[in-house]
Specification:
Protein name: NEP-interacting protein, putative (DUF239)
Number of helices: 5
Strand content: 25-35%
Largest sheet: 10 strands, mixed
Shape: globular
Radius of gyration: 20 Å
Bound molecules: 2-acetamido-2-deoxy-beta-D-glucopyranose
Organism: Arabidopsis thaliana (Mouse-ear cress)
InterPro entries: Glutamic_endopeptidase, Neprosin, Neprosin_propep
Order of helices and strands: HHEEEHEHEEEEHEEEEEEEEEEEE
Keywords: Signal
Low-confidence stretches: 1-13, 15-29, 139-156
Number of domains: 1
Helix content: 10-25%
Length: 400
């Protein structure tokens, strides 16, 4: 693939993951029949594994401590014989540095207050009927969108979708890291605003694999405020993959930090900046605030290109809004030119190469992309001092 193609693929890919969410928004209010409800209750029993201990948060979400060997991931047909790797086999030594004006949101703050899962268990958010109603729509849309993309070629309908990102598109990349600062942009029920880092690869869109991690405001998925999210697909969003652990795949290893957890505290405009360090890498794990949260086993990606290494990496922001509404805030709602303390950023950007070494990417390997520069911008930073050697400011007030 030449580089312009690869960029397109990444943008398509990130856009599709938003389509999955947004299309569902329009149908999510349909009330299921009694029969459908019964079927969903049956499904819930299969999804929600027996809890050894359970907790209810102030947000009325339920978290369960589940036997690590009996979690949902192992319902995946490719993972029947998988044995849990408590520690990833090859963790690169990611250099973790923070701007001395910022504050790290540590694992203690991401842990749910008063919740402590026993040894040998992992913490997972319990799936509800409403989650199922929503994910059914995610699924059905997932079948349609790739066809649409393929048949339309480059004339993809991007209306409603906006992004402002810094993208690495040069050589094989096996992982990424960065510190993302936290904001809580207001959105309407049907809108989405997120900050993410992702890697993606694959020879064709049908074999396109991608994993991403970041924060997201998405009332359909998470009611309100900002939540830690992950997404994966191994086939260009056709049949595989989902957010967090809404389908079997992600193997949770942490008993402290669940996917989908509410993130707090957030940054204050012209005040204290709250940051979280995140990393994704081949084998393929997800670390949050220095805690190994879990991983997607390689066997999920064998049929796709990702096992051999991703072609692309991306850091930045995305939003979605139905055409009938003005697009929401991205990041802090302020443009990159306002800089530290005011604009959203990802700094301390590193990539991991095929040998498992963490590297600072060369300046020329990174380009910014803005879908709607009037509303959202991205600014690549390459200063002398960590963590600003490679960084991106992104965001804007929206209103497109
Ligand atoms: C799991 O192990 C069994 C018995 O060794 C084997 O027959 C089966 O093919 C394996 N399944 C997978 C998905 O590797
Ligand atoms: C989706 O997967 C099915 C079966 O695996 C395949 O027949 C179909 O062509 C795929 N669709 C796209 C758009 O890749
Ligand atoms: C930011 O904070 C500084 C110091 O507290 C203050 O002087 C300045 O006016 C503030 N700027 C904005 C745009 O609020």
């Amino acid at each position: 693939m030449d580089s312009s193609n690869k960029n397109l693929v990444l943008r398509i890919l990130l856009t599709i993951s938003l389509v999955l969410v947004s299309e569902a928004a329009h149908e999510s209010r349909g009330i299921p029949s009694e029969e459908e409800k019964k079927e969903m209750e049956r499904q819930l029993k299969a999804i929600n594994k027996p809890a050894i201990k359970s907790f209810k948060t102030e947000q009325v979400e339920i978290f369960d401590c589940i036997d690590i060997h009996k979690q949902l991931a192992f319902d995946h047909h490719l993972l029947r014989n998988h044995s849990v790797k408590l520690k990833p086999t090859s963790v690169p030594k990611w250099p973790i540095t923070y701007d001395n004006k910022g504050q790290k949101v540590g694992p203690m703050q991401l842990q749910l207050k008063g919740i402590s899962c026993p040894h040998g268990t992992v913490i997972v958010k319990r799936t509800t009927i409403q989650d199922l109603i929503n994910s059914q729509h995610l699924k059905s849309i997932g079948f349609n969108i790739p066809r649409h993309v393929l048949s339309q070629g480059s004339n993809i309908d991007l209306s409603g979708h906006h992004f402002a990102t810094a993208d690495y598109d040069y050589d094989n990349v096996a992982g990424v890291t960065g510190n993302i600062n936290l904001w809580d942009p207001q959105v309407s029920h049907d809108q989405v605003s997120l900050a993410t880092m992702a890697i993606a690869g694959g020879p064709k869109i049908e074999q396109l694999a991608s994993i991403s991690v970041g924060w997201m405001v998405n009332p359909l998925l998470y009611q309100d405020h900002i939540h830690l999210y992950t997404y994966w697909t191994a086939d260009g969003y056709n049949k595989t993959g989902c957010y967090d652990i809404r389908c079997p795949g992600f193997v949770q290893v942490s008993k402290r930090i669940p996917l989908g957890v509410l993130l707090q505290p957030i940054s204050v405009y012209n005040g204290t900046q709250k940051e979280m360090d995140l990393s994704l890498h081949q084998v393929v794990t997800s670390r949050v605030s220095g805690v190994n949260v879990g991983y997607w086993p390689q066997s999920l990606f064998i049929a796709s290109g990702l096992v051999k290494g991703a072609d692309l990496a991306s850091w930045g922001g995305q939003v979605y809004s139905p055409k009938t509404e003005k697009s929401p805030i991205m990041g802090s709602g302020h443009f990159p030119k306002e800089g530290f303390g005011k604009a959203a950023f990802v700094n301390n950007i590193h990539i991991m190469n095929g040998k498992g070494e963490a590297l600072i990417p060369q300046i020329y390997t990174i380009e910014t992309h803005e879908s709607s520069p009037n509303c959202y911008k991205a600014k690549f930073v390459h200063d002398e001092d960590e963590p600003w050697i490679r960084a991106v400011y992104f965001g804007g007030p929206g209103g497109c």
